[in-house]
Please model this.
Amino acid sequence: MPAIQIDSITKVFHPNITALDNVSLDVEKGEFLVILGPSGSGKTTLLRIIAGLEKPSRGRVVIDGETVVDAEKGIYVPPQKRDIGMVFQNWALYPNMKVFDNIAFPLEIKGERKDVIRKRVREIAEVLGIEDLLDRYPRHLSGGQQQRVALARALAKNPRILLLDEPFSNLDARVRITARTFVKKLQKRLGITTILVTHDQADAFAVGDRIVVLNRGRIQQIGVPQELYDEPANLFTASFIGEPPINLIEVDNLDKKLKDNIYKVSNLSYVKVLGVRPDEAIVSKREMEAVLNLNGIVELVEILGSRSYVHVDIGGQLIVALKAPGEEVSPGEKVVVNVLKAHLFDEEGSRISTLRV
Amino acid sequence: MLRYRSFELRLLAASLIIIVVGVLWIIPMYSLLAGSLKSLAEVQGTPVLSPPARPSLEAVRKVSLELRDPIINTVLIVVPVALVSTLLGSAAAYAIYRRMDRVSDTIMILIAIATYIPYHAILVPLINLIKGLGLYDTLPGIALALLVYYTPMAALLMVIFISAIPRFYIEAAMVDGAGDGRIYRRVVLPLLGPGITSTMIFILIMTWNNFFIPLMLSRGYEKYITLKIFSYVGQSGTLYNEMFAASLIGSLPPLIIFLAMGRYFIKGLQAFGGGVKG
Model:
């Protein structure tokens, strides 16, 4: 039995905005699931529906076999009774309470004895490395510390599931990286089923066991991180995931020779768009063994230290690709883009196949 | 440079306006003070704004003894009224803030209407209510009438203050397992500090200065400060110096409250714009 079942959830906001459109999804026990999507994709709404802060227009959510909401049957369990922990985007620490009281709050509501509360708060504070902060007020803490306190508060009552709403987006770049590792390790150590919502693919790849890509209220793809990168289901996932972004080449705009070549190698006549990741194409002065060899002229060389990306003009279309190591190219030079892997998409934007060397 | 000059000019204009308004406000205060330090003959024979020739505290001394009981009575009425109406108002405001639907919108409109009804219009039913409860001419009777009238105003003010509290605090408390009672007591009320103080000060001052409600609900002049001050307007002539002294003493408590708590009052007003800093 999955820890969380999300079954055909639809959410329509007044008057007529569909935030979620028939979303179904299972989360396994102990899994770290990431919901990834741009702003307005409905990802936070989905999380709030799981928490009970929002009611779905249709569909149901089952946690540990217990139906917590079912729009058709009129079942609704309020957030207080769902036994979940949640970390909000801005952490929402109660400003009038010290760190200790913030963490103790959910335990106090459970009616735990004073000494039990004290013991549990110390315990969880130790796990999160915030024992020294218990006497402080939230406003005297740094962003990273506040986040840990919020995590401690969410975990204090040993909830069935942990929900994290953009927990890293308010952190400095440097703290963010350590925070990701920390959260990932913590989750594995506690083995708690966790759902994290983010718009940042780096967050998603760093912590997620599986990633759900959401756009305009619809699930685009569910998979382990590598899958999303290697086998994007459609144009949206392909372009949303990957840094630098994938090159999308309109096949119709290519010259005839090249077009025929693509049709020939793919054996498909309805290919509309060609997707080539910058890291899966090599710019060189000579032709290499590749799926496709595209001739073009260098426009710009972007040096990133360990590697360089070259912007190449191939008959009116710009393509970014990795520079072959050890070679020097400069703007205006004639080069070959050796495509090692290309995704082929049809008119609807679905991936039909992938060409590999 | 030009911009700097225009800023200076605006500062000057603002200072001038403040001075003019300040002077306008201080004149009645000054005439009260001057009048209460004069003898009856002098207060009747000299212009209101002329300083007393031989200042004497006699009127003030005499009146303060007479005002002692009415002041105590008024304090016994207005302090509980301000406290209770503010707490009731904040609880109502919390309920409205939580619901945010057609029901709460309607209640909100009713509260606004109740706030802006002139109390003279509801006085007859109000008096009947107090009489029906057997509380006519008692301190609790006056208090209850003031409470009925001022609670909607407190609720209206508290709705404005409570909307400045970010919703995520309440949502976090819900996820933590807290019910509405606990959320109100442990999360909302502490964050409402400045709002509560401002509303309480406002209600304190408004009720202290109220004249009509205690006038209609009591016999004699001893139960309320404003009535007592009014009593110095005699039927066979007015003791102007004593009336001045009574007015002076009677207006001191709200003034002291405002000066002592003004800081919180301003803080509360700022919450209108800024929201709660976490």
